[in-house]
Protein backbone atom coordinates (compact mmCIF):
# COMPACT_ATOMS: atom_id res chain seq x y z
CA UNK A 1 0.00 0.00 0.00
CA UNK A 2 1.42 3.39 -1.04
CA UNK A 3 1.21 5.84 1.86
CA UNK A 4 2.41 9.44 1.86
CA UNK A 5 2.68 11.54 5.02
CA UNK A 6 3.03 15.26 5.53
CA UNK A 7 2.24 17.95 8.09
CA UNK A 8 0.10 21.04 7.58
CA UNK A 9 -0.60 23.98 9.86
CA UNK A 10 -4.27 25.03 9.85
CA UNK A 11 -5.43 27.85 12.11
CA UNK A 12 -2.46 27.34 14.40
CA UNK A 13 -3.08 23.58 14.67
CA UNK A 14 -0.57 21.02 13.40
CA UNK A 15 -2.33 18.47 11.23
CA UNK A 16 -0.85 15.10 10.26
CA UNK A 17 -1.94 14.23 6.71
CA UNK A 18 -1.87 10.65 5.46
CA UNK A 19 -2.54 9.99 1.78
CA UNK A 20 -3.41 6.41 0.96
CA UNK A 21 -5.78 4.40 -1.29
CA UNK A 22 -9.10 5.14 0.41
CA UNK A 23 -12.35 6.58 -0.92
CA UNK A 24 -13.21 9.30 1.59
CA UNK A 25 -11.58 11.88 3.85
CA UNK A 26 -11.38 10.89 7.52
CA UNK A 27 -10.53 13.38 10.27
CA UNK A 28 -9.70 12.32 13.81
CA UNK A 29 -8.55 13.90 17.06
CA UNK A 30 -6.64 11.63 19.43
CA UNK A 31 -5.72 11.78 23.11
CA UNK A 32 -3.77 12.65 25.14
CA UNK A 33 -2.66 15.88 23.45
CA UNK A 34 -5.41 16.27 20.83
CA UNK A 35 -3.30 15.18 17.86
CA UNK A 36 -5.19 15.92 14.64
CA UNK A 37 -4.88 13.38 11.82
CA UNK A 38 -6.50 13.48 8.39
CA UNK A 39 -6.48 10.45 6.09
CA UNK A 40 -7.36 11.22 2.46
CA UNK A 41 -7.23 9.69 -1.02
CA UNK A 42 -4.08 10.65 -2.98
CA UNK A 43 -6.09 12.96 -5.25
CA UNK A 44 -7.19 15.32 -2.45
CA UNK A 45 -5.11 18.52 -2.44
CA UNK A 46 -3.90 20.59 0.50
CA UNK A 47 -6.58 23.27 0.09
CA UNK A 48 -9.36 20.70 0.34
CA UNK A 49 -7.75 19.36 3.51
CA UNK A 50 -7.47 22.84 5.01
CA UNK A 51 -11.13 23.49 4.24
CA UNK A 52 -12.16 20.21 5.91
CA UNK A 53 -10.18 21.08 9.04
CA UNK A 54 -11.49 24.66 9.20
CA UNK A 55 -15.07 23.44 8.76
CA UNK A 56 -14.71 21.13 11.78
CA UNK A 57 -12.57 23.45 13.90
CA UNK A 58 -15.25 23.80 16.58
CA UNK A 59 -15.50 20.03 16.98
CA UNK A 60 -11.70 19.69 17.04
CA UNK A 61 -11.40 22.22 19.86
CA UNK A 62 -14.16 20.52 21.87
CA UNK A 63 -12.36 17.17 21.55
CA UNK A 64 -9.08 18.73 22.63
CA UNK A 65 -10.74 20.29 25.67
CA UNK A 66 -12.11 16.89 26.70
CA UNK A 67 -8.65 15.33 26.50
CA UNK A 68 -7.13 18.10 28.63
CA UNK A 69 -9.62 17.23 31.37
CA UNK A 70 -8.89 13.49 31.20
CA UNK A 71 -7.38 11.86 34.28
CA UNK A 72 -3.69 11.01 34.11
CA UNK A 73 -1.51 8.81 36.24
CA UNK A 74 1.62 10.20 37.81
CA UNK A 75 5.01 8.66 37.00
CA UNK A 76 5.26 5.15 38.46
CA UNK A 77 8.11 4.22 40.82
CA UNK A 78 6.85 0.65 41.50
CA UNK A 79 6.92 1.01 45.28
CA UNK A 80 4.49 0.23 48.07
CA UNK A 81 1.37 2.39 48.22
CA UNK A 82 1.14 3.19 44.50
CA UNK A 83 -2.08 2.52 42.59
CA UNK A 84 -1.76 0.30 39.52
CA UNK A 85 -4.61 -0.60 37.20
CA UNK A 86 -5.08 -4.26 36.25
CA UNK A 87 -7.78 -4.80 33.60
CA UNK A 88 -9.70 -1.75 34.71
CA UNK A 89 -9.49 -2.33 38.47
CA UNK A 90 -7.21 -0.20 40.72
CA UNK A 91 -4.90 -2.11 43.08
CA UNK A 92 -2.47 -0.94 45.73
CA UNK A 93 1.08 -2.14 45.19
CA UNK A 94 3.10 -3.84 47.91
CA UNK A 95 6.82 -4.04 47.18
CA UNK A 96 8.65 -6.99 48.74
CA UNK A 97 12.43 -7.28 48.60
CA UNK A 98 13.87 -10.77 48.96
CA UNK A 99 16.49 -13.06 47.54
CA UNK A 100 15.89 -14.79 44.22
CA UNK A 101 14.11 -13.60 41.10
CA UNK A 102 11.08 -11.39 40.59
CA UNK A 103 7.41 -12.33 40.94
CA UNK A 104 4.03 -10.58 40.81
CA UNK A 105 0.82 -11.78 42.44
CA UNK A 106 -2.68 -10.39 42.99
CA UNK A 107 -4.68 -10.93 46.18
CA UNK A 108 -7.70 -8.94 47.31
CA UNK A 109 -7.08 -5.28 46.55
CA UNK A 110 -3.28 -5.66 46.43
CA UNK A 111 -0.66 -6.35 43.79
CA UNK A 112 2.50 -7.72 45.33
CA UNK A 113 5.77 -7.16 43.46
CA UNK A 114 8.65 -9.26 44.78
CA UNK A 115 12.15 -8.32 43.59
CA UNK A 116 15.77 -8.81 44.70
CA UNK A 117 16.94 -6.52 47.48
CA UNK A 118 19.11 -4.39 45.19
CA UNK A 119 16.54 -3.99 42.38
CA UNK A 120 16.31 -0.41 41.15
CA UNK A 121 13.28 1.34 39.64
CA UNK A 122 14.02 0.21 36.05
CA UNK A 123 14.38 -3.41 37.15
CA UNK A 124 11.06 -3.21 39.01
CA UNK A 125 9.37 -1.72 35.96
CA UNK A 126 10.69 -4.43 33.64
CA UNK A 127 9.62 -7.16 36.04
CA UNK A 128 6.13 -5.71 36.38
CA UNK A 129 5.74 -5.19 32.64
CA UNK A 130 6.80 -8.79 31.91
CA UNK A 131 3.99 -9.90 34.18
CA UNK A 132 1.55 -7.51 32.50
CA UNK A 133 2.60 -8.81 29.08
CA UNK A 134 1.98 -12.43 30.09
CA UNK A 135 -1.42 -11.69 31.61
CA UNK A 136 -2.46 -9.61 28.60
CA UNK A 137 -1.41 -12.34 26.18
CA UNK A 138 -3.55 -14.84 28.11
CA UNK A 139 -6.59 -12.66 27.40
CA UNK A 140 -5.70 -11.63 23.87
CA UNK A 141 -5.23 -15.11 22.42
CA UNK A 142 -8.80 -16.34 23.09
CA UNK A 143 -10.23 -13.04 21.82
CA UNK A 144 -8.25 -13.28 18.59
CA UNK A 145 -9.58 -16.81 18.12
CA UNK A 146 -13.14 -15.74 18.84
CA UNK A 147 -13.17 -12.72 16.54
CA UNK A 148 -11.33 -14.53 13.75
CA UNK A 149 -14.04 -17.17 13.72
CA UNK A 150 -16.87 -14.65 14.13
CA UNK A 151 -15.66 -12.40 11.32
CA UNK A 152 -14.63 -15.28 9.10
CA UNK A 153 -10.98 -14.26 8.69
CA UNK A 154 -7.83 -16.34 8.99
CA UNK A 155 -6.50 -16.19 12.52
CA UNK A 156 -3.53 -13.80 12.71
CA UNK A 157 -0.56 -13.98 15.03
CA UNK A 158 -0.92 -11.68 18.03
CA UNK A 159 1.89 -9.68 19.57
CA UNK A 160 2.16 -7.37 22.58
CA UNK A 161 4.33 -4.26 22.51
CA UNK A 162 4.48 -0.70 23.80
CA UNK A 163 3.12 1.79 21.30
CA UNK A 164 3.07 5.57 21.66
CA UNK A 165 0.31 6.45 19.20
CA UNK A 166 -2.22 3.58 19.11
CA UNK A 167 -3.98 1.10 21.35
CA UNK A 168 -3.51 -1.50 18.63
CA UNK A 169 -2.50 -2.05 15.02
CA UNK A 170 -2.68 -4.75 12.39
CA UNK A 171 -1.05 -5.98 9.21
CA UNK A 172 -3.59 -8.00 7.20
CA UNK A 173 -1.04 -8.92 4.54
CA UNK A 174 1.44 -10.19 7.10
CA UNK A 175 -1.28 -11.79 9.23
CA UNK A 176 -0.31 -9.94 12.39
CA UNK A 177 -2.14 -8.02 15.13
CA UNK A 178 -0.31 -5.88 17.69
CA UNK A 179 -1.84 -4.91 21.05
CA UNK A 180 -0.48 -2.04 23.13
CA UNK A 181 0.89 -3.23 26.49
CA UNK A 182 -1.17 -0.43 28.08
CA UNK A 183 -4.28 -2.55 27.43
CA UNK A 184 -3.28 -4.68 30.43
CA UNK A 185 -4.58 -1.73 32.49
CA UNK A 186 -7.90 -1.32 30.68
CA UNK A 187 -11.29 -3.00 31.25
CA UNK A 188 -11.73 -6.39 29.53
CA UNK A 189 -14.65 -5.09 27.45
CA UNK A 190 -12.35 -2.43 25.95
CA UNK A 191 -9.85 -5.13 25.02
CA UNK A 192 -12.65 -7.10 23.37
CA UNK A 193 -13.55 -4.02 21.32
CA UNK A 194 -9.94 -3.42 20.35
CA UNK A 195 -9.40 -6.96 19.06
CA UNK A 196 -12.69 -6.82 17.14
CA UNK A 197 -11.65 -3.46 15.67
CA UNK A 198 -8.27 -4.70 14.49
CA UNK A 199 -9.61 -7.93 12.99
CA UNK A 200 -12.37 -6.04 11.20
CA UNK A 201 -9.54 -4.33 9.30
CA UNK A 202 -8.72 -7.72 7.77
CA UNK A 203 -12.02 -7.30 5.89
CA UNK A 204 -12.05 -3.51 5.42
CA UNK A 205 -8.82 -1.55 5.79
CA UNK A 206 -10.31 1.93 6.01
CA UNK A 207 -12.56 3.37 8.70
CA UNK A 208 -15.30 4.01 6.16
CA UNK A 209 -18.95 3.02 6.03
CA UNK A 210 -18.26 -0.66 5.38
CA UNK A 211 -15.96 -0.87 8.39
CA UNK A 212 -18.49 0.85 10.64
CA UNK A 213 -21.22 -1.49 9.36
CA UNK A 214 -19.07 -4.47 10.38
CA UNK A 215 -18.67 -3.16 13.93
CA UNK A 216 -22.37 -2.30 14.12
CA UNK A 217 -23.26 -5.85 13.11
CA UNK A 218 -20.86 -7.81 15.30
CA UNK A 219 -20.35 -5.48 18.27
CA UNK A 220 -23.35 -3.11 18.44
CA UNK A 221 -22.09 -1.28 21.55
CA UNK A 222 -18.64 -0.58 20.08
CA UNK A 223 -19.06 3.19 20.29
CA UNK A 224 -19.69 2.97 24.03
CA UNK A 225 -16.63 0.77 24.49
CA UNK A 226 -14.49 3.07 22.36
CA UNK A 227 -15.53 6.07 24.42
CA UNK A 228 -14.91 4.16 27.65
CA UNK A 229 -11.40 3.29 26.48
CA UNK A 230 -10.68 6.91 25.61
CA UNK A 231 -11.89 8.02 29.07
CA UNK A 232 -9.60 5.62 30.92
CA UNK A 233 -6.73 7.23 32.88
CA UNK A 234 -3.72 7.80 30.67
CA UNK A 235 -0.28 6.60 31.63
CA UNK A 236 2.43 9.09 32.49
CA UNK A 237 3.88 8.49 29.01
CA UNK A 238 2.36 10.26 26.02
CA UNK A 239 0.02 7.49 24.86
CA UNK A 240 -2.83 8.19 22.45
CA UNK A 241 -5.65 6.24 20.87
CA UNK A 242 -5.46 5.66 17.17
CA UNK A 243 -8.92 4.17 16.72
CA UNK A 244 -11.91 5.28 14.68
Automatic annotation (TrEMBL):
Matches recorded under Pfam families: YgjP-like
Coiled-coil boundaries: none
InterPro entries per the UniProt record, alphabetical: UTP_pyrophosphatase-like (IPR053136), YgjP-like_metallopeptidase (IPR002725)
Domain YgjP-like metallopeptidase, chain residue ranges per copy: 27-231
Gene3D superfamilies: Metalloproteases ('zincins'), catalytic domain
Protein name (Swiss-Prot/TrEMBL): M48 family metallopeptidase
Annotated source species: Pontixanthobacter rizhaonensis
Species lineage: Bacteria, Pseudomonadati, Pseudomonadota, Alphaproteobacteria, Sphingomonadales
